[in-house]
Amino acid sequence: MQHIPNSSDTNAGVVLTEHSTSEATPFERIGGETAVRALVERFYDLMDLEPGYAALRATHGTTLESARQKLFWFLCGWLGGPGHYEERFGHPRLRMRHMPFSIGIKERDEWLACMNQAMAETGVEETLRTRLAQSFFQTADWMRNTHG
Q1: Is-contact 4 135, C-beta < 8 A?
Q2: What distance lies between CA 59 and its chain's CA centroid?
Q3: What is the full per-residue pLDDT of the chain (148 aa) written as tens digits?
Q4: Whole-model pTM above 0.85?
Q5: Distance between CA 32 and CA 28 in Å, rounded?
Q6: Gap between the Cα atoms of 39 and 80, Å rounded
């Protein structure tokens, strides 16, 4: 059973996965660490290359290396795999960690479009991509800290 975060959830932004041995986690379904790494690499490559993601790219500073690594670590655990991020930094506290950055509707929508494009281009199967897109939307919308 996958928990979809909402704004009233104290753990909003974190997908908690409980599964039986007969149901694969999203991490397993996506293809494990190799596939998560490919997804993150494509996501940041697209952000760097596509003019349509300029507002999103502008929030990331001059280099994307740290962001690439942190998103990889985070997504592994968020998808139900190894808790690399938590082992290094503790609870993700996504909203708190993103407060220094202006995140409005434009940044949210660019993040979602970029991730959806990256999922499609790295071969995330459609059913899983739809499920993840819903969770990503709820998390990204919850992260907004400006009205624009």
Answers
A1: yes
A2: 15
A3: 343 343 334 344 444 444 445 689 999 999 999 999 999 999 999 999 999 999 899 988 899 999 999 999 999 999 999 999 999 998 888 878 877 778 899 999 999 999 999 999 999 999 999 999 999 999 999 999 887 6
A4: no
A5: 5
A6: 16
